[in-house]
Specification:
With 203 residues, this protein is mainly alpha-helical. The chain contains 10 helices and 2 strands, in the order ααααααααββαα. Helix content is 56%, strand content 4%. The protein has a two-stranded antiparallel sheet with strand order 1-2.
Amino acid sequence: MTPRPPRVELDELRSRIGRELEGAAVRVGAFSGEAVRVLAHWALSSFDDVQLDRVTRRVATDSAGIPLLVVALLEAVAAGLDLQKVGGAWPEPLQTFDQTLAGELPDAVVAAIRVLFGKLSGPAQQVLAAAAVLGGRVPAAVLGRTSGVGAEALDGALDELEWARLLSAEPRGYSFVARIVRDVIERDMVTAGQRRRILEAAG
């Protein structure tokens, strides 16, 4: 994944937030079927109307309209994931994202998270695996020590994970944007030996 180029005007705006400009928390609700179709058309521009209708129905069902999963599924389809070859269905449409267990997710969603992980650079995968094992909010220095990623590569890996909407940064450290993504990575993308080394390095 190539980091996005810096934008001077955006950097200037960010520097003013919290000082000259008041911030606001924006909570995005579940996407409607029409919103999913608009995103599908953008992400899968080569698809015809019939293909778009089919993928929209499947993505809307498997993601329960949750924005993070909608985007992850569409990115995975664009990267080659065939939704017709994976099964499963969202068990409880009214269940919240944070209440869902990794084992309850549709196969397509789990596959999309794995595809997303596989597209990351090596250092970013190591850092994300460490964050998944440790859980909670983890300081950058601890992620570097437990992942084995050097200081120079660590900054780039953390930036990559933020751009990918996988980790969010706060003064106290980094944490997963979505707990269920952390659960899938910790369960499926970390070996027993890797988990042990991370915990030992964490002390």
